[in-house]
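Per your request, structure below.
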C-alpha cells in the first residue's frame, strides 16, 4: 500500500496551519525550533546559508497510534521519520537566473498500525512506509517569462503538487493526501510518497489567480506493478526507471480572495484528470469473459489498454477571523474523484472536512478539524468477491466501502514544535474484507484508533 506524505516537498505538510507565503528565494518562512529557542550558532549558520542561496532543513516526526477496539488485533505502534532536505538557488550560487535545485531523503523506522493491526485502505498515518533510508525527490526547476512558466525535471512525486487540498493537510490519515483510489489503482501505488520517479512537470501562471499544471511520469515507480512488493523492488528510491508506460496528469486551479485586504472569503477551486498508458486487468473476467472465480476460468484476467480518472477539489473559507490573515477562521474542503469500473478496485471516492484555524487569540497557531473519507469498491471487484464465495461454497464477505473519520488538534508548543492528538474511526476496514485471523471469515471489525504525533522542524 502506498501511503501519503507529510514531507518538506509536499503542500499537504505536517504544519497545522496553512503554509505562510515564503519570502523571495528558496528559504521558506516556516518557524524552526532553532530560532524559537534561540540557538545562536544554528540560527547564524542557517541564515548564512540562506543568504548564499542554500536552504538546509532537518525535520522529525514521531508518533504513537493504537487501536483498543476493532481491527484484526489490538495494540499500539510507534513510527518515526527523519527528513533531510536541501534547496539551492542557483542564481545566487552560480548566476543561473531562475534555476533552483531540490533534494530530500527519509529515514523511516517503526511499524504501521494499519499494516499490523487493521488491514484498512485509509492508512492511519501519512508517514507510514517500510523502515529504511531512501531518496525521495531530486529535481531542478527553471522559471521563464517573468516567472510565469516553471519547468521541473528529475525524480518527482505527483502528490507533491497534484490532487492536493490545502485544508486536508491538517490530517494524519494518508487518504487526505494521496487518496485511496490513486494508491490502490495505479502500479506501485503511483508516483507518490515514499516513491518518486523520473518526470517532467510544467506549470503556467497566466494571471496570479490561475495556475495550470501538467506532468508526465514514468508509470511504475518501482516496477512492482500490482504485486505489492514495492520496497523489495526499490528499497533505496534510486532505481530511476524510465522504461514503463507513462502516467500523465493535469490540473487547473483558480484561487480567489487570497489577499489580506480582500472583502470576500478566500477559496481555491481545482479540476484535474489523469491517464495511464499501461496495461490494466479486469477485476472480474478472464480472457474468455468468464468470471475469474469460476472453475471454468482459465485464470488469466482480461487485459485492457490504459486507465484514467477525473477529480475536483474545493478549499473554501466560510468565516474569516477579523484581521489581516485570510486563512484564519473556519474553512471547509471537499474532494471527489471517479475512475472506470472494469479495471479498477476502487471507482469512486469523496472526502471532506471542516477546519477551525487560529480562532483562540491565546493560541493563534493552533488548528482543530474533523474530516471524513468514503472509498467505494468497484462493482466489478464486488462481483468477483460474491462469485468467489458462491463457487467455493464458503462464506466470504463481499467488499463494498470503507469510511475513515478523523478528529484532530494541532497545537504549537513553540515555533517549530507541534503536538497533535488524534482520533480516527475506521468503518468497514478493508472495505468489509474477511478477517484473516477469524476461522469463520467474518469481516474485519470497525476500529477506533487513538494517537499523538510530534513534529520538530530544525
Amino acid at each position: 500500500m502506498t501511503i501519503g506524505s507529510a514531507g518538506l516537498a509536499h503542500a499537504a505538510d505536517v504544519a497545522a496551519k496553512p503554509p505562510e507565503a515564503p519570502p523571495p528565494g528558496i528559504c521558506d518562512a516556516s518557524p524552526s525550533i532553532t530560532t524559537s529557542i534561540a540557538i545562536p550558532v544554528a540560527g547564524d549558520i542557517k541564515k548564512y546559508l540562506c543568504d548564499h542561496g542554500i536552504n538546509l532543513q532537518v525535520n522529525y516526526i514521531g508518533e504513537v497510534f493504537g487501536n483498543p477496539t476493532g481491527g484484526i488485533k489490538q495494540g499500539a505502534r510507534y513510527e518515526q521519520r527523519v527528513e533531510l532536505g536541501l534547496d539551492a538557488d542557483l542564481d545566487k550560487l552560480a548566476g543561473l537566473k531562475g534555476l533552483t535545485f531540490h533534494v530530500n531523503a527519509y529515514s523511516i523506522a517503526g511499524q504501521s498500525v494499519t499494516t499490523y493491526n487493521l488491514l484498512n485502505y485509509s492508512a492511519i498515518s501519512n508517514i507510514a512506509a517500510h523502515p529504511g533510508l531512501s531518496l525521495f525527490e531530486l529535481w531542478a526547476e527553471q522559471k521563464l517569462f517573468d516567472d510565469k512558466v516553471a519547468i521541473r525535471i528529475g525524480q518527482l512525486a505527483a502528490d507533491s503538487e497534484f490532487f492536493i487540498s490545502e485544508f486536508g493537510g491538517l490530517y494524519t490519515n494518508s487518504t487526505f493526501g494521496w487518496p485511496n483510489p490513486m494508491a490502490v489503482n495505479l502500479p506501485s501505488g503511483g508516483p507518490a510518497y515514499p516513491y518518486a520517479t523520473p518526470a517532467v512537470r510544467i506549470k503556467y501562471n497566466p494571471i496570479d489567480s490561475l495556475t495550470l499544471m501538467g506532468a508526465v511520469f514514468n508509470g511504475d515507480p518501482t516496477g512492482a506493478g500490482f504485486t505489492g512488493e514495492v520496497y523489495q523492488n526499490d528499497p533505496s528510491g534510486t532505481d530511476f526507471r524510465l522504461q514503463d508506460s507513462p502516467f500523465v496528469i493535469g490540473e487547473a486551479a483558480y484561487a480567489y480572495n487570497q489577499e489580506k485586504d480582500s472583502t470576500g472569503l478566500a477559496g481555491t477551486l481545482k479540476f484535474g484528470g489523469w491517464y495511464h498508458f499501461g496495461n490494466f486487468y479486469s477485476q472480474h473476467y478472464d480472457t474468455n469473459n468468464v468470471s475469474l472465480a469460476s472453475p471454468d476460468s482459465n485464470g488469466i484476467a482480461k487485459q485492457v489498454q490504459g486507465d484514467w480518472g477525473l477529480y475536483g477539489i474545493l478549499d473554501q473559507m466560510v468565516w474569516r477571523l477579523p484581521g489581516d490573515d485570510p486563512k484564519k477562521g473556519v474553512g471547509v474542503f471537499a474532494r471527489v474523484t471517479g475512475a472506470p469500473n472494469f479495471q479498477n478496485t476502487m471507482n469512486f471516492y469523496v472526502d471532506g472536512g471542516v477546519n477551525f484555524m487560529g480562532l483562540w487569540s491565546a493560541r493563534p497557531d493552533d488548528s482543530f478539524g474533523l474530516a471524513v473519507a468514503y472509498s467505494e469498491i468497484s462493482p466489478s471487484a464486488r462481483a468477483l468477491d460474491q462469485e468467489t464465495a458462491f463457487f467455493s461454497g464458503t462464506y466470504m464477505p463481499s467488499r463494498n466501502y470503507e469510511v475513515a473519520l478523523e478528529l484532530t488538534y494541532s497545537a504549537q508548543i513553540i515555533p517549530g514544535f507541534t503536538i497533535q492528538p488524534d482520533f480516527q474511526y475506521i468503518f468497514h476496514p478493508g472495505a468489509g474484507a474477511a478477517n484473516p485471523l477469524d476461522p469463520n471469515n467474518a469481516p474485519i471489525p470497525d476500529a477506533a484508533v487513538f494517537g499523538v504525533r510530534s513534529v520538530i522542524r530544525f
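The CA atoms of residues 346 and 377 lie 4 Å apart.

Regards,
D.
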